[in-house]
Amino acid sequence: MTPTPLMNLSRSDQINQLTGGYGHIALDLVAEGWFPYLLVLKFHHLGGRRNTVIAQMHREAERAHRWLCERVWRNASAPSRRPWTPRWILAPDYPVAKGTKVSARSALRDLVPNDGLHLQGLAVMPPGGRLREPLNEHLGPSGARYCPRGGPLLSLTATPITSDLGYVHTYNFKALMRGRASFDDILMLPRSSTELDSKPRPAEDPWRHPVLVRERPRSQT
């Protein structure tokens, strides 16, 4: 059956299709032996309008991703390495204050850089490569080695995902679902999806939360 063009769908259906499409990228890679993590990027205060702030965050995420690729593979930009490049699927995110009064939330925003806006999503790491430790151990508690002094990036952390990858991925898109983010705010790294064959494919309707099942990693050196 031919997928319905996104422009002909409602916003909720568009979100369902895009979220599911990106989710299938991660699920397919994990089925091939890749390793999933919840990735969180927090930033120092960034000036300007929201779209300018998001652009700065995207640039910093690209820089950090590029540095990571160089640690995972020697000659990371070589064509033979491109299919094995770590994948990041990031979306804007805001802290959720449950059971907090409006006045308290407003006071909290005054103390948190960028009103709490940060990037959050999946990092899927390939098997093999030069990075022998898990991503969370490599980054450490704050990812300081990826956060140059005086730069915009405050911290970069990773948490292994051991179950319910689909739910975690969908939850990362909650700002998009709540109308606090746009489709252009979503960042897939590396950007060159055509070269890496990682363009989101249409999701199953409806997008469900598959249970994460690990398989034996396939070695690639």
* Content of β-strand: 15-25%
Average pLDDT for all residues? 83
Strand line-up in the sheet with most strands:
4-1-3-2-5
Number of domains: 1
Rounded to an integer in angstroms, the radius of gyration calculated over CA atoms is 18 Å
Q: Which secondary-structure class do the elements indicate?
A: alpha+beta
Note the gap between the termini.
Answer: 39 Å
The total of helices stands at 7
For the largest beta-sheet, the strand count, sense and barrel status come to: 5 strands, antiparallel
Instruction: List segments where confidence is low: pLDDT < 50 over at least 5 consecutive residues.
Output: 102-107, 203-221
Strand runs, count: 5
Element pattern in H and E: HEHEHEHEHHEH
Shape: globular
- Assign a percent range to the helix content: 25-40%
Characteristic terms for this protein:
single chain; 221 residues; five-stranded antiparallel β-sheet; 5 strands
What is the strand and helix layout of this fold?
Blueprint: H1 11-31, E1 35-43, H2 50-72, E2 87-93, H3 102-111, E3 118-125, H4 135-139, E4 153-160, H5 165-172, H6 174-177, E5 187-189, H7 193-196
Antiparallel strand pairs: 1-3, 1-4, 2-3, 2-5
Helix pairs in contact: 1-5
